């Protein structure tokens, strides 16, 4: 997680998502990686993050090193989902 970034509403997001083993989740604004990390820590699931900011790449690399194939980052913004 980016030490200068505060993940907003993290407990509420985890409560509503209720991550479960085998689940697949999409973090459309990866940013500091806080929500992605929390989801991956909550269950044996996978997360795809989206972000177009090159500064997100080192944070993504750190999560990939820790969680392996359970995490992937796609260099794009959520407006291109369609």
Which sequence of strands runs across the widest sheet? Answer: 1-2-3
Tell me the distance between the termini. Answer: 28 Å
H and E order: HEHEHE
How many helix segments?
Answer: 3
Report the sheet with the most strands, covering strand number, pairing sense and barrel closure: 3 strands, parallel
Structural class by secondary-structure content: alpha/beta
Number of E strands: 3
Average residue pLDDT: 92
Helix content: 25-40%
Poorly predicted tracts of residues: none
Shape: globular
Q: How is the quaternary structure best described?
A: single chain
Q: What can you see in these coordinates?
A:
This protein has 82 residues and is α/β, with parallel strands linked by helices. Helices cover 34% and strands 18% of the residues. The chain has 3 helices and 3 strands. It has a 3-stranded parallel β-sheet with strand order 1-2-3, covered by helices on one side. It starts with 9 loop residues before the first helix and ends in a 7-residue tail after the last strand. The model has no long low-confidence stretch (mean pLDDT 92).
